[in-house]
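so the lab meeting is tmrw and i was supposed to have these ready like two days ago... anyway. pasting both below. for each one the top line is the aa sequence and the line under it is the structure tokens. i havent really looked at them closely yet so no promises
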Amino acid sequence: MASNALTDAPIRRRERLDPSVFRLPVERIREGYYSDVYFNRTVDVLQADRQHPQVLMQVFQKNYSVIGGMDEAIAILKLCSDDFSQLRVHALYDGDAIAPWESAMTIEGDYTLFARLETVYLGVLSRRTKVATNVRRVVDAAKGKQIIFFPARHDHHLVQTGDGYAAHVSGAIGVSTDAQASWWGGKGTGTVPHSLIGAYQGDTVLAAQKYAEFVDPSINLVVLVDWENDCVRTSLEVARALKDRLWGVRLDTSETMVDVSIQKLMGDFDPRGVNPQLCTLVRRALDREGFEQVKIVASGGFNVEKIERFERERVPVDAYGVGSAFFQGSYDFTADVVMVEGHPCAKAGRRYRPNPRLEPVT
């Protein structure tokens, strides 16, 4: 396999999630409700003609990527096929890196037992792999700094559970909702939000104090400090008020705004939003007053490229919050019949690609 950042250090999981974790609508999937209708008709034709071809189905995609959704796809086969005991499935693991065209999973057996499931398991793999791959790229760019998964508000709530798990296996240190953390038994994490600050008439310090008073003290207290567009002053005010209870401050200045502390430095850099100069000013101010332990979390428009730039410039950031960037790109999976009755049988341009990395699914 060619060397690639995504394949040099794969994360492997040797235990698969139990199928019950996914709470699949089993009967609806079995009846073909979520399937492309031509797969349902294919099953109808074969069964009416009393045909039960023994096939090998090969699943792959065409990019360097990180597998997500494999345990979910396997659960679909186990719970929704007509008889999983009659199938032989080999697969990679969630979190595994994969090369273009490399087989991620094979399914062998009577095609009528699982034909109608193709739409569903391919959709799961495509969606979760997109998230897993984008998270791994961000994690790599951050060079060991914490990545917090913040995209819940950018998509339908029903995708949160699987997306959160895909982020988890790819190295995200935290997710923002309990649903995103549910498959591995975790909990959502977050910061004092703008809405709570607003509820206390824009008083960031008061909102932070009330948060500290009424929220579980074991939770790391992170406070948004851009409400008044003066991150340096607000960070110091919060640190002075909360002292050791404060874990970190989060800079989230709008990309259409220039922070007060930056306005006097206007020069040969883009002054808008959360930029290296703003992070540096906040870090220096905290350190001057003895708050070296307070972490800086940067968010707002961060993606691989912006994080790589921050790391090249050694910007004093301890963690990054990333949102919609995790949904970028396309990692579409395809499934092909490549063997029938033990003999090669694939459409032009396709062939059986054995993969010794695949492991049997029990």
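ok protien two:
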Amino acid sequence: MLTVEKSGPIAVVTLNRPEAMNALSRALRASLNTVMFELDADPAISVVILTGAGEKAFTAGLDLKELGSDAKAMGAANDQDPESNPVKAIEQCRKPVIGAINGVAITGGFELALACDILIASENARFADTHARVGIMPGWGLSQKLSRLIGIYRAKELSLTGNFLSAETAAEWGLVNRVVPAADLMPTALKLAADIASIPVETLTFYKRLIDDGFGRSFRKGLELEHERSSAHNRKVTPQAVEARRAQIQARGRKQ
């Protein structure tokens, strides 16, 4: 139900329950936690791509059949343990995670998409927050993240109607980085991952954490955080290291 393919510094993780629209069953959530923990600890991996099997669904969110048959399963919507909470499973990875959104990302699946660092959407992708229609409230961050990403009025429109948002509109609203034809989704994600992986993983993890931690604070506090961490980091950088990086940047610029 979950596959991992490694190619050099890039790992592609695929939610593989296409017959169930890649719904996040208890077993799949536990497996995702294990995989993300292992990839975070793997020194050979710099970037992770997360996608879904097939063209219909990235993931439809929590497995409603499982929820409807097991009272204990309802607690998954508020569980903060990465073994049950797939957002926490993604967030525990210090390395950049690219979401290659191949189809619908619904409710918990929408929350899982928002846990990624960069979103590339297929033309088949659609997003929907159906929490209100199912009768449960989000517990993996959607009610707070969405308004901060696309604005409170648009977030309320999506969450209080449960309507679907097309990939094109998601790009217009700044929810995804770009939309590509379905056939180009993985090549685009892999090219972007290769660009990211050309930077040392220690730099990637430091910068990702700096952005994320600052985003969770006020602008003023974020600036203070940047000054504190960058000052400590930059004192350790030697002129020789900067010169070596400068040569690499110039060479790369001539190729682009």
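from a quick look at the 2nd one: The chain has a mean pLDDT of 93. The CA atoms of residues 169 and 248 lie 37 Å apart. will dig more after coffe
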